[in-house]
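Support reply, case 0932

Customer input (verbatim):
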Amino acid sequence: MARVVVVFTGGTISMAFDPQAGGNVPTLDGAAILARTPGLDAIADIVPIERGRTPASHFAFADLSEIWRDIAAGLADPDVAGVVVVQGTDTIEETAFAWDLASDAPKPVVVTGAMRASHEPDFDGPANLRDAVAVAASPDAGGIGVAVTLAGTIEPADDVTKMHTTALDAFRSPNHGRLGRVADGVVVVERVRGPRRHVPIDRPSERIHLVMAGIATDGALLEAAVAAGADGIVVAATGSGNTSPGLLAAAERAMARQIPVVLASRCPSGPVGTAYGFPGGGATWVRAGAMPAGSLCAIKARVALAYGVGAGLSRDGLASLLADPLP
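Our regenerated output:
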């Protein structure tokens, strides 16, 4: 039987309602979650690792690097088929992408959690955990890198996006679609994972700021980020990479100070580009020196920039990391 390492970090899957707090709070540890997930012993031999009960919104980049050490150790063990990380869904699209940047192992890493807390009648945690373990144990899942599995789908870490705040099937991959699905415990891989980005994640920069463009967004927030000591800035532009002239002017001043600036989109899918040449259009951003994020959404571009800057990549290295990998 396959052996699967399961790293428990907390999240909604660990929570229950506390009347004194007036909401859901961390309650279940990994052992309690396993006890509520019958049938796992028929899928794999589980090696549990406890890492506390941290809400996903509380993670810092340094926490992801610590969890990565457990993942890497599991991947390096010849007796382990794959690794599962159990966490909150609020930042799962960021954490999974960070670990995907670091992983070059053929074994799968599957990140999962729950959209319902443990006291709710439609608690989805046990089903999601069983599916995630099934994917991690499957010989057909080799080469998928890091994936997110909830509600029976297998989503690639570089594309997966939380599309709804509360829906059980909140996660989708809007650019290229899912990698596969899990149906009644059977893992079906529907497509091959494409080329992936890679960078070490042991020295992240915590000072990468995200500025979102919209109507009447000038350069004030970007200038505040520079004043706060930003090591890099990601601009979530409108459409395919367009902003006001004032936001671009502030970015030009930041780039003159050798602060890397990344141009991404606030849209959930599609690449940024250079189709528009008016002041603040995507073409003017790229000519000014901003690095396009390809099809990475802005929040994932921030993760890539944090680890790229932390790894000491040159501007060309950062631009290559951010760009969509060539097939």
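We compared this against your earlier run and they match. Two observations from our side: The mean pLDDT is 97. The chain has nine helices and 16 strands. Please reopen the case if you see a mismatch on your end.
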